[in-house]
TrEMBL record:
Enzyme Commission designation: 5.1.1.3
Key word Cell wall biogenesis/degradation present: yes
Protein name: Glutamate racemase
GO terms of biological process kind: cell wall organization; peptidoglycan biosynthetic process; regulation of cell shape
Residues reported in the UniProt entry to bind substrate: 26-27, 58-59, 90-91, 199-200
Keywords, in A-Z order: Cell shape, Cell wall biogenesis/degradation, Isomerase, Peptidoglycan synthesis
Family from the record: Belongs to the aspartate/glutamate racemases family.
Functional description taken from the UniProt entry: Provides the (R)-glutamate required for cell wall biosynthesis.
Gene Ontology molecular function: any one: glutamate racemase activity
Pathway assignment: Cell wall biogenesis; peptidoglycan biosynthesis
Chain coiled-coil ranges: none
Residue positions of the active site: 89 (proton donor/acceptor), 198 (proton donor/acceptor)
UniProt key word Isomerase: yes
Length: 283
């Protein structure tokens, strides 16, 4: 097992700010939705995004494979000089976050299916959409069993949806046909909360909303941004940059076309009002 630990780069005089970028990784393009939300809420911070499109999707891989992919992603980002790392992939958080936190001396934050806020909001019939691996691993199962007696919770893996989104298709007949085949079994009038438990799924949020027009939607982006901000405050890692931060994109496919695709999808993604702080602050 990898035992290497990266020490913080600071030596000598300690400062109360840190202008290094924040690293973000996902199995592919899904984490761009998380990144766009964080960059919107924390506009002065700089970010480096790594999409592991070469190994996407993670949801059909074994836990040990995902852990090794995640280690590779962390090593790449640390070599870019990041000050914190966000796992913008629910599956990778479930499969690898605990081990990564033990192996690396850098703040590591991971997104998780937003079941807790969906339950606390008082929804009576919650549908959780995600990968089969996320739902079967211990981290999510603990969440599920914590709340299963409080409300009706339906779990629905959507194998194949990530593959479609990874091709850049986020609307149109292919998406609608896939969703119709997988979601028609649920009563649209009964479901009042939908948890998007994979960071790819918000790219097709509008299409999913057509099946559940009266439901509240939860994706976890605001929660992971709050946790990131907490870690930055705790470690005196906030930037003092007064200009808009820089965002860099990398992919394990490592082609100009892939990077261009990331940039376009990032620009196209619309952050939901529900993912923005209602008070204008994360505190």
């Amino acid at each position: 097992m990898l035992q290497y630990k990266l020490q913080n780069f600071r030596t000598g005089d300690e400062t109360m700010t840190d202008n290094r970028p924040i690293g973000v990784f996902d199995s592919g393009i899904g984490g761009l939705s998380t990144l766009k939300t964080m960059a919107t809420i924390l506009p002065n911070e700089s970010f480096i995004f790594l999409g592991d499109s070469k190994n996407a999707p993670y949801g059909d891989k074994e836990k040990d494979q995902i852990l090794q992919f995640s280690r590779n992603n962390v090593e790449f980002l640390l070599n870019k000089g990041v000050k914190a790392i966000v796992i913008a992939c629910n599956t990778a958080t479930s499969a690898a976050k605990t081990e990564l936190m033990a192996e690396y001396n850098v703040p590591i934050i991971g997104i998780e299916p937003a079941l807790k806020p969906a339950v606390e909001a008082g929804n009576q019939d919650i549908l959780v959409l995600g990968t089969a691996l996320t739902m079967k691993l211990t981290k999510f199962q603990a969440q599920y069993h914590r709340f299963e007696d409080q409300t009706q919770i339906d779990l629905k893996p959507l194998p194949g949806l990530v593959d479609i989104i990874e091709t850049g298709v986020v609307s149109g007949p292919a998406i609608k046909d896939f969703l119709a085949d997988n979601l028609s079994e649920f009563n649209a009038n009964q479901i009042d909360g939908v948890v998007l438990g994979c960071t790819h799924y918000p790219f097709v949020r509008n299409s999913i909303q057509e099946f559940f027009p009266n439901a509240n939607f939860y994706d976890g982006f605001l929660g992971v941004t709050k946790m990131l901000k907490h870690k930055l405050n705790e470690g005196n890692l906030n930037t003092d940059n007064q200009e808009k931060g820089q965002i860099s994109f990398y992919s394990t496919e490592d082609t100009p076309e892939e990077i261009d695709r990331y940039q376009k999808l990032f620009n196209q993604y619309q952050v939901s009002d529900a993912d923005l702080p209602t008070t204008g602050t994360l505190e």
